[in-house]
């Protein structure tokens, strides 16, 4: 296993501690931070038990009320959801908790709005998800449109779920893609 120091150019979300960098899932060409599970050591894909969370909701605080509603609906449907206000307690290291939660979530749902697209945090969370699976073959990155906004080219190439009108069919699609296989 290769040991490297991991630094971030847009902010120090990854603590300046060495992390194990592993080449995971060679078929998907995924780079991931973390430790090898027994399944991964045998060259198998992630299993549901590899992830403490089904969903990480990446969002801007200006969208908190709306995202909280989505999180509650996902949770009510049996999914394990990481929402910062539910999972990060006073005194916790925010950077470290976010880093672990992104890696420990089977799916990162990117909640898109004008505020989210201007957010350095949201940009970093998106970049982290795409770094570990650039072609998104594992469908671990799911864009969700919350409001009208101009999508950057890096996001336009992915099909998004349109929740601008809180459509039940669109939510059912989100629920389907976030459920473990």
Concise summary:
The chain is globular, with a radius of gyration of 16 Å. It has helices at 38-41, 64-76, 84-87, 94-103, 114-117, 120-132, 153-156, 168-178; strands spanning 2-5, 18-24, 30-33, 53-58, 81-82, 105-112, 141-145, 161-162.
Fraction in helix: 25-40%
Instruction: State the strand order across the main sheet.
Output: 5-4-6-7-8
In angstroms, what separates the terminal alpha carbons?
29 Å
Shape: globular
Number of strands: 8
CATH class: Alpha Beta
Seen as an oligomer or otherwise, the chain set is: single chain
Architecture per CATH nomenclature, i.e. the level-2 architecture: 3-Layer(aba) Sandwich
How many independent structural domains?
A: 1
Overall pLDDT metric: 76
CATH T-level fold name: Rossmann fold
Radius of gyration: 16 Å
Number of helix segments? 8
Largest sheet: 5 strands, parallel
